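FIELD: query
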Amino acid sequence: MGSHPSHRSATIGKKYSVLFGVGTLLIGLSLIGTLIPSTREWISTQVIQRGFRRFDHTDRATDQLQRLTTLYANLQQSCQISNDSNTLKQFSEHKEYTIIPALVVGTNLIATSPFYILNKGERDGIRTGMPVVAGEGILIGTVYTVDLRQSTLLPITHPSTRIAGSVLNEERTVGIVQGSANLSLQLTLVPRSEKLSIDQVVVTSGIQPRIPRGLTLGIITDIHNDPSDIFQTADIRLLADPRRFVTVGIVQDASL
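FIELD: result
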């Protein structure tokens, strides 16, 4: 026996409702790309959540959901790349050096600290030792190895890292910032006569080849001043986690 007309109408109506819902969501996602980041992310989340509730559990609806989820993920990644790039662009304005944007395309896990793989290499003017920044000029590492099309980033938290640093205090205290085993930083080789304080900002000193003055390293969180030692040390809290960035900037000295 054939299906009752009212049943067929309900089925057709349900399918059109699914397709209409998907179409509406896709159009909505394409439009919100022009909004400011905070508004765009909130609207994206609301659209996805409401869209999921409109679909039934048919195979067709499942396929559409998969497509929509992939589109949403791509949109979010595009937003992050755009936000990172815009921040780097603003930082590089009026600087004496050039910022070369690079994408983090992978990691190479070695010991306890990863090396990050960047999509810029020799053909882009990248050389070993160049500093790599994120956000508004926060130093996150240096270029470790370079081939024609790619390079690797050695994070400043790696135990082998040594960066000439300066404290933003009256004395402009200088020392060596090095990575430690617990993925943090320490300011070392500071004479005990120098006055350090909690919450002071540490930046690059500018005396190290290829690393300009004033790149942010972090904030002092603890001070170790043992009377039996010649030098004092200070723990530094990082202001940026390299794992959270998709786009970073490689600093190219103007003289190169």
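FIELD: remark
The first strand starts at residue 98 and ends at 110.
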